[in-house]
Write a structure and sequence with these properties.
Layout (H helix, E strand, L loop, with lengths): L1 H31 L6 E2 L11 E10 L5 E5 L3 E5 L4 E9 L5 E10 L7 E6 L5 E3 L4 E10 L14 E10 L12 H4 L3
Parallel strand pairs: 1-7, 2-10
Antiparallel strand pairs: 2-4, 3-5, 5-9, 6-8, 6-10, 7-9
């Protein structure tokens, strides 16, 4: 009886851990910068260093999303601590409205803890009308604390990479229908 109860508790714990794994991993990555996840900041740092860094920009569109997505610049040289705004251009090439969401990371992955975004189009779902072209900005800086990290003393280039994914259409109620009339459809 004790063995069966212990196995039941263990199974329940494992199922709970499986459901909690994704949000916990997401929180861990956002907190530590693990796997190239960038940090989010609300303001600029207090200092700008003389040391410069090249930041490269990569843009990808996943299959099923009929968009063209490119950075307006392929790379910029920035001073560590300097706030920079870079624009991306996106074009909906479909004849219908389409929604997408961007995921992002930086390379090398260990630099994610030092790459801070103040504003980014990736924070929200983007909906483009048929044929619409839009400029989307990302505002970022490289944290001056990077200069104190011996692991990054020879780091001169960071790549910021975005991938846009198609967002599935949500079920929207049909205008003029009630719950009772939907069941007759």
């Amino acid at each position: 009886m004790i063995v069966a109860a212990s196995c039941g508790v263990l199974a329940a714990t494992m199922i709970g851990a499986a459901y909690a794994a994704v949000p916990l991993y997401d929180w861990f990555c956002r907190t530590t910068g693990f796997g190239g996840t960038t940090m989010v900041s609300e303001q600029a740092p207090d200092q700008i260093l003389a040391r410069t860094m090249t930041v490269r920009f990569d843009a990808n569109v996943m299959p099923g999303l009929p968009w063209r997505f490119v950075p307006e610049q392929n790379e910029v040289k920035v001073r560590i601590g300097e706030v920079v705004t870079i624009n991306y251009k996106v074009i909906n090439q479909a004849a219908r409205d389409v929604s997408g969401q961007a995921s992002y990371n930086v390379t090398p992955p260990t630099a994610g803890a030092y790459f801070h975004k103040i504003n980014c189009f990736c924070f929200t779902e983007q909906r483009l009308k048929a044929g619409e072209t839009r400029e989307m900005a990302v505002v970022f800086y490289v944290d001056p604390k990077l200069a104190d990290d011996p692991e990054h003393k020879n780091l001169h280039t960071i790549t910021l990479s975005y991938s846009f994914y198609l967002m599935r259409e949500r079920d929207r109620p049909v205008a003029g229908t009630t719950d009772a009339s939907k069941s007759n459809l």
